[in-house]
Amino acid sequence: MIATLKRANMEDVRAKRPSISPNRADGIPIEEAPFWVLLIATPLIDAVLFLGAVGFQDALGAWHGQWKPTALGALASSAILIATLSRLKPWRRPKPGEPDTRPPIVHFATWLLGTAAFAFILEGLLALIWADRHPGPVGVAYVMIVIAGARGLLGWAERVKKRDRK
Questions:
Q1: What CA dihedral angle connects 24, 82, 63 and 68, to 10 degrees?
Q2: What is the 3-state secondary structure (H, E, C) of 90-142?
């Protein structure tokens, strides 16, 4: 009897929740994510922002191993970013032909984390691994060119493979 009531209660709870299936290709939208997911996402974004902050400081010649202020600044930035993005209206990228109704902060955050910060993240990673012996911004630019070339080569190989299948 108690097991039946618990099962019925769980079914009610599941019926009220948004449908989040592990087979869904999209994942959980951040605006529908439970609080514990946001707590997990914050340090993950923090790790990326920390590397970017170290790389930015190193590129300016201002990185001298000051871990605490940089880490606290990156943590505060990631908490603000997660809190801002999770409270906005849905911001999924629209399908082709649909109007883009995403808030401006989403465009900026996507651009910042995806494009502008990549070089600084790589620079920060090299600065933390090799300290004073890393190649510097010019070396990072060479590494980025190699990565871009490898991605282009892999994309070209995939297109050739698709063409051969047809």
A1: -120
A2: CCCCCCCCCCCCCCHHHHHHHHHHHHHHHHHHHHHHHHHHHHHHCCHHHHHHH
Q: Which two tokens stand for residue 127?
A: 């600065």
pTM, two decimal places: 0.60
Provide the residue count of the chain: 166
99: left (phi over 0), alpha (psi -120 to 50) or beta: beta
Give phi and psi for 82, each to the nearest 5.
-65, -45
Give the position of tokens 């004073």.
132
Q: Per-residue pLDDT tens for 105-126?
A: 776 776 666 666 777 888 888 8
Residue 58 CB contacts under 8 Å (≥ 6 apart), including other chains: 123, 124, 127
Residue 74 main-chain phi, psi, to 5 deg: -65, -40
